[in-house]
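ok here's the first one, seq then struct tokens
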Amino acid sequence: MQRSLTIILSLTTFVGSALLLAGCDPTGGAGASSTDAAATVNGKSITMEEVERAVKQQAQGQEGRLSPLELAAGRLQVLQSLIEQEVMYQKAEKEGAVPSDEEVTAEFNKRKTASSLSSEQFDAKMKEIGETEASARLAIKKGLAIQKLNEKVTGKIEPPKDNEIAQFFNNNPEAFKNKRGAQLAAIVIDPRVGGQGGNPRNELELQAKVKDVVDRLQANADFATVARETSEDPNTAMKGGDWRYFTEEEMKQAFPQGFAETVMTKMQNGQVIPQPLPFEGRFVIVKLQRKQETDEARTLETPGVRQEITDFLINSRRQLLAASYQALAMNEAKVENFLAQKVVANPNELSGARPAVAASPANTTANTAPAGGNLSNSANASNVAATNSKPAANTSAPAKNTAPPKANANR
């Protein structure tokens, strides 16, 4: 069920990380109409309905835990992402990068099929998050258009020259050392999801989920198959449990005491630890895919190293070009942010006190990791809106990757 809900949410979630309160004006009081403009981009309105739809998809029932101050801050962050998206979509229209109706339909159907829900269940979940097929298709259309624009803009990047590759290698020797560690696969069990009525699991439901997975593995079921069918992390489910490489030091920090020693000294490749282990608010059932007993320094002539550097430099240049293109587009656009104007006009109407909300034991556990998040990127939902960091909008710029390529990551 977790994978299903995650895929539905991905139909329209084009903003980064923020939690907002639907149905209130930006200063914390009631009264904003869903047809009011929250902002305009070159005269095109972004309505309160669009903002509140993003609110409903992002909040996941946690908005009651946040103060009006936190909610207003998060709301402005989400609106900024919507503004950036609209700016880039308008650029895509001018550049002829808008997808056809057939492409949008194909993508919508692909995501619907991947949800593994019946048509009735899918429609019910769409309704639950305030979505319609029309709004979902529009979000997909904008996302595909911006992706096409990004590909068009960054298609000018040429491969690095041999001397650039050699210089990068010489300047980053530590990035090309394979450190002692292990490549792990995982089946993820998330306490947040899968309970009755879409609520977090209670203890009995969680135990039943764990028992089902463990029983199948102990009956010699194929780990990859079980992972695809049961893992509640989209990445590991899609890749048949394939997860990531951990150095020995990373395992010591991330897992319970003794885990790293067990993996490195007692386990054989292909062996499974059937007991679920805590990891960033969720539980993982781990399989050792392979381990590296000693540190190994790769050279520029080691197979794959030149390609790693080439890919890294090309992606870094694409990111810089895409970010610069977006900055220019934002600078050229005429943007009016009405929510921000109202906050400035009413600076003293926002309370910083959080409401007193009694969390159930299930919810307390759940708050350590957002539903559907990647295993390497968990965060407390309540803390997301409380921070002042700007969410990453899925506009023209791909996710940043400014560090040198890590030799130990998913080789």
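and now the second one, same deal
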Amino acid sequence: MLRPLFLLLATLSFANAYAGEAKIKSSLDRDHPEIGKVQQVNKAPIPGLYEVVTQEQIFYTDEKAQYLINGNIFEMKSGRNITDERTRKLFAIDFKALPFDLAIKRVKGNGQRQMAYFSDPNCGFCKKLENELKNVDNVTLYLFLYPVFEGSDVKVHNIACNKNPAKAWEDMMLNNVQPPAAKCEASADKVLALGKKFNVNGTPTLIFADGTLVPGYLPGAELEKALNKPASH
């Protein structure tokens, strides 16, 4: 008789947990619409804490939804950033669905690996990224010009209208050669809308073939590691 009793208790425990998560979601949607529509509520790795997933980010709350925590959970023993890992998994992007026609394409070596990224010509860390990418081979890069700094819109326009945008970009970012003034119908509006859709709030922002979005600069070794992950299907 122990086995049926165990199964009954396990079922009740699961049902209670689900009811608790559903209650938290309902409470937050009703009382705190300012945080955005709640997509999921899940148990966090810390007892009594719940993970709240909105359209834009992850929060944490207690079982009564009285407190909201905006921050990262780290596992002390391993040093893992649990929140960052969950964010990358939950907000993974369908890489193949990106509008590559809006990007500047560069192919290095056999081009088998792929990475898309948002970058600004006046961004210091974007220049550091380009210096790292000099040493990365066998990759196809899709650059989305994303002017967020003052004066960047003019540079972005001149690069986009250049006869060879990829070379104009590399000349500026690696050798500080400013692109000559140019006129064309190029507009950054579509790329800005794309960045807003993916909550790109700064540059550089990287998107790898497995759908992982990484906000910020990565050194060469980390780039290689991320590029070698299998592409999403």
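notes on #2: The first strand starts at residue 38 and ends at 43. The CA atoms of residues 136 and 220 lie 7 Å apart.
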